[in-house]
Amino acid sequence: MTKTLVLASNNQGKVREFAALLADFGYEVIPQGQLNAPEAEETGLSFIENALLKARHAAHLTNLPALADDSGLVVDALQGAPGIYSARYAGIPTNDGANNTKLLQALAGIPTEQRTAHFHCCLAWVGHAQDPTPIIVEARWKGRILTETQGDQGFGYDPLFYVPEYGCTAAQLDKTLKNQLSHRAQALKLLKQRLLSSC
């Protein structure tokens, strides 16, 4: 019997990604917007806090199990910025180009070896809004920040995020390969392992 899981996001790319992963577990993944649930206000101070806040919010409004993702770019030379504010780094409304420009300005003059960074993903799964034992997984994708954008395959900070093992940016990677390497892909694998062990 198919069970319904609400995704605390209206991002269609994420919906497709999670739906494919969770099909094996008999879940139909529905974005919260389809159930008229507004997005939660992200007031947490960490990826874990925000992911859990979003998952509980979606579960509370829909009375369904919920899954939330909170991700961002962590730059070492900027003491972890933009971090949890990655999407709105340059302000609201969010704009990838403006965010990348602000990041380049913040790193102006910083030498290559000090431009290390990683993408961070935290996933939170709750069976219900008050679930005392949520499943939380985290993953990182390491790289460094270039001095100019390269590639047009990705989104967000992908054109600035250089992946040393492949000698190109995340925005120049083949989409299939990126979906195997990324922070979200790694976190999804961890979530799948946790779900399998809890069955």
Helix and strand arrangement:
Blueprint: E1 3-7, H1 12-22, E2 27-31, H2 47-62, E3 66-75, H3 96-106, E4 116-126, E5 135-145, E6 161-163, E7 168-169, H4 175-181, H5 183-198
Parallel strand pairs: 1-2, 1-3
Antiparallel strand pairs: 3-4, 4-5, 5-6, 6-7
Helix pairs in contact: 4-5
Please provide a written account of the structure.
The chain has 199 residues and is α/β, with parallel strands linked by helices. It contains 5 helices and 7 strands; from the N terminus they run E-H-E-H-E-H-E-E-E-E-H-H. The chain has helices spanning 12-22, 47-62, 96-106, 175-181, 183-198; strands at 3-7, 27-31, 66-75, 116-126, 135-145, 161-163, 168-169. It has a 7-stranded mixed beta sheet. A hairpin with a 4-residue loop joins strand 6 and strand 7 (168-169). Helix 4 crosses helix 5. The longest helix has 16 residues, at 47-62. The mean pLDDT is 92.
